[in-house]
Write a structure and sequence with these properties.
about 15% strand, three-stranded antiparallel sheet, about 45% helix
């Protein structure tokens, strides 16, 4: 170069004999510097937007030089490399116990207002880690009452006759202000009428039929265990020309009405059971 050779940069003439040409960098670079590293990270996030719904529950960051996805709720670390995908993150969301607790307190809380708008009921479920003893159940219930701000407005607790629930009520009494309860806590624990009715029906069936109901359950379980047996049962129904399309099913032990439906279905097929008994003693 001669002294007449110059570089015009930002309206300033820089002579080549005063500054080497290598010192003039006119290339654009996306690499971060110390002064704009945070801005670069922000731009990188915008360029690579995380679209999976899993990222609503996870933060992506490097841990020990490896990219990890950290659960916002239980803080568990899972792989966050591109090759890992997000299916394992979505699977974790479905089983994360902390999400279930949060959903119980916040997401699954539903207010059902009455027609006059003055009364509402709260329908919700809560995940309680084991062991399900009186202390854990009492703490979980008290946490709900505090979250809903109704610990000073509680009237009754409707529970079944499980002995653990009896002990839980005693735990709750130690945590609540008894002066705010009806009749100084005498009406706090209300026994579930439906559960009591179920116990009455079960005992009545045992007195009337002895082990007969249990034998019926065994027969239904036998003929519905495999598709081949069920096919043979249906074939016998057709041979006997029984005009019934009810499906055999086992009852639920805690629901007396399901036992009634099970027995009424079996009565429709009593001839089928008698016929099959001759071939399958």
């Amino acid at each position: 170069m001669t002294n007449d050779d110059t570089i015009d940069l930002d309206n300033k003439n820089i002579e080549s004999n005063s500054t080497p040409s290598m010192a003039v960098d006119v290339e654009t670079s996306s690499a971060p510097t110390n002064t704009n590293e945070s801005q670069y990270d922000e731009n990188l996030k915008k360029k690579r937007k995380l679209t999976s719904p899993a990222w609503e529950h996870f933060k992506k960051m490097k841990v020990g030089g490896v990219m990890k996805a950290i659960c916002d709720h239980c803080h568990k670390h899972l792989g966050a490399e591109i090759k890992n995908g997000t299916k394992h993150l979505l699977d974790h969301i479905a089983v994360c116990p902390m999400i279930k607790q949060r959903d119980t307190r916040q997401m699954l809380l539903k207010a059902n207002s009455s027609s006059d708008g003055k009364c509402a009921s709260l329908d919700t479920f809560m995940y309680v880690p084991s062991p399900h003893d009186a202390e854990n159940l009492g703490d979980a219930l008290m946490e709900c009452l505090l979250d809903w701000n109704i610990e000073r407005k509680l009237l009754t607790l409707t529970l079944d006759n499980c002995s653990t629930n009896d002990a839980m009520v005693n735990v709750m009494l130690d945590k609540l202000d008894k002066s705010l309860l009806l009749v100084n806590d005498k009406l706090l624990h209300i026994r579930c009428a439906t559960h009591i009715l179920n116990l009455i029906v079960k005992e009545g069936l045992e007195n009337l039929f002895g082990s007969g109901v249990e034998r019926i359950r065994d027969s239904i379980a036998f003929w519905t265990t495999t598709p081949k047996r069920l096919e043979k049962f249906d074939e016998s129904v057709r041979h006997l020309n029984i005009p019934c399309s009810k499906v055999l099913y086992l009852d639920i032990n805690t629901r007396w009405n399901s036992t009634y439906l099970m027995l009424s279905t079996v009565l429709s097929y009593k001839d089928v059971f008698s016929r099959l008994r001759q071939h399958e003693p």
